[in-house]
Amino acid sequence: MLRVENLKKHFVIGVIRKHRVDAVKGVSFEIPEGGSLGIAGNSGCGKSTIARILMGLEEPDCGTIYLDGERQDALSASAVRIRKKKMQMIFQHPEASLDPQKTILSSMMEPMVIHKMCESTRGRKERIRELFELVGISESLFSRYPHQISGGEAQRIMIARALTLEPKVLILDEPTSMLDVSIQAHMMNLLKDLGHKMNLTYLFISHDLEVLSWFCSHICIMNQGTFVETGKTEEIIHHPGHPFTRELVESFSEF
Ligand SMILES: Nc1ncnc2c1ncn2[C@@H]1O[C@H](COP(=O)(O)OP(=O)(O)OP(=O)(O)O)[C@@H](O)[C@H]1O
């Protein structure tokens, strides 16, 4: 479903003394339809840069992305728009993704209008109602503003919003790290359930090996812009081959 080959990205920071940061140094991975791949690594190792490139928010230096069998850099502008529908992202700060001046219903409608989903406003509202039910929130939130909802509700709204476009791939970038521990488990169960019901393909980015090992069948361990180890999650967690992976696994088993 999603294949990435030799992705690279550097940034130049500083004004007077320029400094080069090689954020992603040639990573490759593949996720089959309905599969779940985790990318684990410490802060600053380049995880979110990969996600931002996939979502078209950053231009890579080089690399090839195939989505649903199609090479993405060979696409026309209209095909890029279709790709953006197929791949959606859930961010760490859901409240920051909602416009504070718009009601929840209006924020939900927006992507559906842009991508011409459903024929009428009534049809769109009905679809949003169904999605709210699916993610376990009530339509009483429709008329509220982002400051009138909880963090857990905001994240469920963002999941429902991503699903309005009927994506095939969901990129999760630390989707639960800002939530209460009690809500985190509900959210992870919800995402797993949705994956089964809608045959979603997941790319899950996190520094939390415990969450990733529960959610993902396969995992890539990332350090300083490269994948140091890739494989089945169970095998990597129980038999880490690379010193960095061992360090990461040990830091989690201490808790
Ligand atoms: N727009 C940018 N301009 C300059 N440097 C950047 C930019 N975006 C990321 N970087 C740098 O690239 C490196 C990788 O950043 P990235 O956000 O991908 O890491 P991460 O693994 O997702 O970290 P975290 O888990 O803390 O979000 C870091 O050194 C970061 O400072």
TrEMBL record:
InterPro entries: AAA+_ATPase, ABC_transp_ATP-bind, ABC_transporter-like_ATP-bd, ABC_transporter-like_CS, P-loop_NTPase. GO terms for molecular function: ATP binding; ATP hydrolysis activity. Gene3D superfamilies: P-loop containing nucleotide triphosphate hydrolases (3.40.50.300). Residues 2-249 form the ABC transporter domain. GO terms for biological process: transmembrane transport. Keywords: ATP-binding, Nucleotide-binding, Transport. Belongs to the ABC transporter superfamily. This is ABC transporter ATP-binding protein. It comes from Wansuia hejianensis. The lineage of its organism: Bacteria, Bacillati, Bacillota, Clostridia, Lachnospirales.
